[in-house]
Amino acid sequence: MSGDPGIPSEFELSAAVARFAEARSRYAQAAELVRREIQSIADGARIRARTSCRAKDVRSFHKKIIEKGYRDPWVDVTDKAGVRVILDVAGDVDRLAVLIQAALGDRVLRLEDKRMPGSPDRLAYSGVHVQAISDGGPEALEVEVQLRTGAQDLWSVVSHRLLYKPVVEMPAAAQHAAYRLVTLVELFDEEVERISVLAEELVQRLPVEERLLEVAEGHYLELAHSPSNRAIGQRLVGVLRATYEDHEWSSSIELLEAFVNAERSRLTRLFSEYGPHGPLGYVPDYLLFGQAESLVILERLEARRHAVVGAWRGSGLPHTYLATLAEAAGVALPDP
Amino acid sequence: MANRFAGLNIGDVVLHQVPGRASGTDQVVLSDVATSLLSGQREYIQQRIRGALARYARPIVEIDAPQYVPDRIRSVLSVPGALVSESRAIATHLSSAQPAISPGGIVVVARCSLAGVPAVLIAKLEHELGVRAQQTELANGSRTFDVQLLNDLLFTGSSKVFKVAVMMAADSDTPLVGHLVDTQAAGYGVAQYFVSEFLGCGLTQRADRLTEMFFDNAEKWLNRQADPEKRGRYQLALMSEMLSNVTEIAPDAFASRYLDFEDRDSFGSALASNGAPEVPFTKDTTLIQSRLGQVRVDTASGVLLAAPKERFEDGTVVVRRLDDERAEIVVTDEIAQMSGRRKRLRAADDGADVW
């Protein structure tokens, strides 16, 4: 031990660094597991989230212990594994935080809301941190999850470089200029939130057909990485309307959401093999794989195959389009 | 896509050619290496096989293990690099197992997975005939189309000339299980030589049990229909299907042929939720023979009517729906005899008399 009973000795410091160097790959694995879990939670709730992860660099781990004067480096450095989640809308930070707590349960150790600076006249770092335990890997490890908006992330990255780790000490006026940028971050996020709420209200006023198409397009973009032709989509959804009982039609969006969430991994593979970027994307028979409504058709085939075949026959659309989609998805289509 | 065959994914593929009677040779043409599938080819073959499995797959199991082909499959699944050599053995075995009358074709052996479980796919594809037209320019500069007759096509759009077996990995001392499709066999049956002599397997479900399950579940479903006229019509359709000369039952085709459009999916769901067959199966009415003679109607107030199904079909007995929950049953016939019927007593296990 060193002379100060609270500060780790050089030996203890070296041991902590060596231990982390040895364990770092496991922390990287834990971070990736938690990242996937959170991306899945966000996707399931249709929250637009961009996730990334890392295990802390060994040198950063070493520097942090010294800079912060940690007494128990192994315990005190809580971001040995980290996941960053960037969200479009400020309200989604709270929504996702709640969903993560619900999904991970006891594996959430604590939640820290860093958007509250403590005093109305102060500006500070913005974001929510969730300290979680990984699951599924060889070892359950702590992972720090940071939830931020895009604007908060931008300010955080810039301020980190200019204020916390500057090559030269910034003059007070320059530091003030950097801090007041937080005001723009807050204004930006509030305006995005306001406009997003308005957009959602307008979407809710649309007919079910349009909203169903909107939801299908959102999922399709994520699964097939391709836009969809809206005019063809409107025609196809019109055809599919006949496959819903009246009570089903009002919950058609929920039916689609449940289907996509349950079948996400198979759908991802299906569209990578047969979608517009797949090797058969140029063949006309695979037209439906280039349309977002293919998701609605697949959900309907799961629920009411005969009704889909009947509606399709009545529409005059080529049977080959439907037959190809069904065959690739392993669905037995009744004869028309 | 709860359908499990959506999870069929094909990996390495080896092709061989087995001769047919008309080929004038008994020589199997074997490959030395796996076939390199170009972009889109694997996806296309996979799609065709997924579709065939979804429509026609019959569960099979290895009989009296270990059998020759299942052992080759175990080797492919457990020994890295064994695919080519074992596939050669499989193709040679097929050539010797198939009857002389069987046409030649291409044997496909592939590593695959079904819902994540390692498996081996064996398919026999027969060549089909088709025509290709390509624009060409004559010596005088005139353009025309050159037509070629192709007799070596495989897996064409409406192809029904293939047999497919997918066998899943299992412990070394456990019989292999899998699925079999034979789109060539009469109706929806399977060629016996392929399933037993070649694969060393048998169907896991007996035809008489499948027929009974279908009949029971179809009756339960139709008796849940609110409209009495519809119930009667569907009951007659079910009896007709069971008493007809057809040797196979295809539940989808039954629904399309006899049920009102809006009832077909409900019928299919009822079969699926009770484990009754959804894919075509061989009909065997042995276990339900005693129930096929007459149609019986029980009313809520205790009236019982039993009549041969032909009497419903010729209009002697007519069931009509009234405006409320009730129905009208009209029997137009000569009364041959009326008599009191005694209730028959029998002893119950607990000693009490019951009806």
What is the element string of chain B, with H for helices and E for strands? EHEHHEEEEEEHEHHEHHEEEHEEEE
Shape field of chain B: elongated
Give the integer mean of the pLDDT values of chain A: 89
* Approximate helicity band of chain A: 55-70%
- Largest sheet entry of chain B: 7 strands, antiparallel
The assigned structural class of chain A equals: alpha+beta
Measured between the Cα atoms of the first and last residue of chain B, the distance is: 48 Å
Strand segment tally of chain B: 17
Explain briefly what this protein structure is.
The complex is a heterodimer of chains A (336) and B (355). Chain A has 336 residues and is an alpha+beta fold.
Describe it.
The complex is a heterodimer of chains A (336) and B (355). Chain A is an alpha+beta fold and 336 residues long. Helix content of chain A is 60%, strand content 10%. Chain A is built from 13 helices and five strands. In chain A, strands 1-2-5-4-3 form a five-stranded mixed beta sheet. In chain A, a hairpin with an 8-residue loop joins β4 and β5. In chain A, α1 packs across α2 (58-68), α7 packs across α11 (293-303) and α8 runs parallel beside α11. The longest helix of chain A is centred in the first third of the chain and has 35 residues, at 10-44. Mean pLDDT of chain B is 85; it is low at 347-355. With 355 residues, chain B is an alpha+beta fold. In chain B, the strands form six sheets. Chain B has a seven-stranded antiparallel beta sheet with strand order 1-3-4-7-8-2-9, with helices on both faces. A two-stranded antiparallel sheet of chain B has the order 5-6. In chain B, strands 10-11 form a two-stranded antiparallel ribbon. Helices cover 30% and strands 28% of the residues of chain B.
